[in-house]
């Protein structure tokens, strides 16, 4: 290990050397540090809201149609104090996550399993393509009819949106798995089962996790659209009811909370990826300096 | 030399592949023997089906006709008894060096602690101690190929099938790894079949060289390389080295004399 670190630090040194000359000329942008970036990011967000507030105050924009940050803040404070924002977020998050997990696990498993039988895969492929070409969101009204207005319908909707995406990604990744690695496994006396567990699954994992990212977004879409159509709670419910009452500030609270939820879910996937793919990590930190 | 024992006979093996214009014969009745503790190089023009021979021996392809006889017993293939090594190191990127080396033993079902001990021993023999937990992408090409060699040797295969294992490496690393290979083969008493484009490498390493003709492929000639050597580098300074080299170039229809005049 020591040798490796020694090697890489040496490489880093030699990579830095030619840059040393240009560094003084092109003085490194002093905000390009963790803290510096956060300061810049917070400053731009604050500026955005300040300008918005000011414009609404001056009457340049209609508070009725776009809302106003101070109003948004009031709604947020009330809903935070009575805890209802957490309940609604919880509903939406639960629907999205549960649907995502079921859809992704079932879809990925089915997609990987299709690797086992080329015949079965060829047989069902056109059906999958056909099913996938239906915009799943169009199923929402039927799903609501069949599964009621409660939690189940939203979860089913999310499953319908995520499962096929996961299936296609997993199947494609399994098909693309390195043939030579499979041959090597076979020449070592490995069974088809062993090839599946030791080559197909690990080599498909990166593509599958990349799909998690897309699917977690779909999860929120499914949950929110389900709530739009019919619901008693949830962030989609807040947005929908408030906008039909022209209560724009509450709409924004719903939207910003959704954004936050999506943001955390995305980083959850990031975390998962680092955990599941440690072998992908070291190199990705390197950026090409131009 | 005492009478050599035949370990593996390849007899009259034929193989053709389906292509657009119909069947394309690749191997046209290939016959040659591999002795116990032999080191045989197979050379031939590109695309002559050298890798196909390997795939048939390894059981990754079935021959159309012909047979393999292993120590007197006809067999379908040698799956599980051979160690296969290719130009690509084929290390599993998601496995650490140690896990890569362990792969074959795991497939075979060797108890874990036993496998671990063996793996660590091999890694230290080949100077890779300290890299157990590294992922392949952090290693140099030569190191990766060394890990691949350990992974092959640790299975204690009866025959090593090496398919241009060093051709992607720079010359220095290649010379070094040729030495490592030769030493390992001596230490572990292995039989080796090496496919190579590199006549120089074939002469330096092998006891015998099988020259194949172009497609459809047959054995053109088998040459015995009678060089006393303790290392591949030393072999290259033997006075017979260049004679063998030119003979083999002739087998592949490479005009060595003309080239020298040009130079």
Can you offer a commentary on this structure?
The complex is a heterodimer of chains A (290) and B (263). By secondary structure, chain A is an all-alpha fold. Chain A has one domain: MetI-like (MetI-like fold, Orthogonal Bundle). Chain A contains 13 helices and no strands. In chain A, helix 9 packs across helix 10. Chain A starts with a helix and ends in a 6-residue tail after the last helix. A six-stranded mixed sheet of chain B has the order 6-7-8-3-9-10, with helices on both faces. A four-stranded antiparallel sheet of chain B has the order 2-1-4-5, with helices on one face. The longest helix of chain B is centred in the last third of the chain and has 18 residues. The relative contact order of chain B is 0.16. Chain B has nine helices and ten strands. The radius of gyration of chain B is 19 Å and the shape is globular. Chain B has a domain of 153 residues: Rossmann fold (3-Layer(aba) Sandwich). With 263 residues, chain B is of the alpha/beta class. At the A-B interface, helix 1, helix 9 and helix 10 of A face helix 2 of B.
